[in-house]
Amino acid sequence: MKIATLILLTCVAGLLATGFVMLFSASTGETKLNYWLMQPVWGALGIVGLWTLAWAGDYTWLKKVWWLVLAATLVLLILVLVPGIGKVANGARRWFAFGGLRVQPTELAKMGVIIVLAWYGERHARSMRSLLWGWLVPGSMLGAVVVLVFLEPDWGTAALIGAVGVILLYLAGARIVPLTLSVIGAASAMAVLLAHDPVRLKRWLAFLHLERYRDTFGFQTYQSVTAIGSGGWLGKGLCDGRQKFGFVPELHTDFIFSLIGEELGHVGAMAVLLAFLAILFSGLHIARHARDAFGRLLASGITFLIAMQAAINIGVVTSALPNKGLGLPFISYGGSNLVILLAGVGLLWNVARHGTQTDNVFRAGVVALPNAELEPA
After folding, report:
1. Where exactly are the structural domains of the chain?
2. Dihedral of alpha carbons 44, 50, 51, 53, sign
């Protein structure tokens, strides 16, 4: 367990440091922006949260406030949609603005869903095979959050939260058939809405035919792929990239990985990928050896959240996925996302500190309670 925790913290620290350096490099192409100065401030706040949640008692105190977490999540997501309260930017209402400070409630929603479903999965462990308690009730809670995020609109984050939620329900013992049908239904609904949404339809066309639309709505992705390819194996050198001079919009947020590929080369990009893989395996190891079902689901949810967000971001930047608007964990600029993810790492550390070295049962369809009779998967 100590080795898994050490790997986890080392990789997070390495990614965080990489983010600071690459944001400074990105700022050389956009001198009017101060995000490279603000990111260390957000990082410091996140580290305080990480340390506090890792060492401030036992993580099981979260089970007592699950209802408060759910209520706060829903209230904040509703308020951000209210005109005059939520701030509109780029056609979406996703932020609360307090002077020059912006807070994105969807980042809180990511962690809120994980906490609530982890509590639910343990509380109803023996009834997760039923359609009512294993699908309809938790699915309604998850669906309410996903729909509110979708309405902002933030399709990428809605899909990410929904995917993590479905995985947690599956690990908690819910039946695979209703979960699969739910995923198919949600995907079908999004496909219908996509056909009537010109902006997102253009993103899909750019994804399918990048060369054809490279000078129009595929410009950002095409320039991103060009930046990564031009870096070669060893890169052009730190601060020596050229695509950051207006060629790749939102370089400091969603497309920071393209700058890594250009300046640090394929070697640097692969190091980032390996760091996220190490976080995935160390997080799942911590989950496997958690002392209770709540800890196992909590650790699994946080781990899959980090890994899936990283996979989606890198997939978008390399044109393996259509543009989704999700940042690269610990590296992209974004205060809310950075603080929440670092706090999640703190909870992972807490689960590891109170874990056991015994080999608990943890497989798809079964989350074992200590000394409890297992229900067949």
Report:
1. 2-357
2. positive
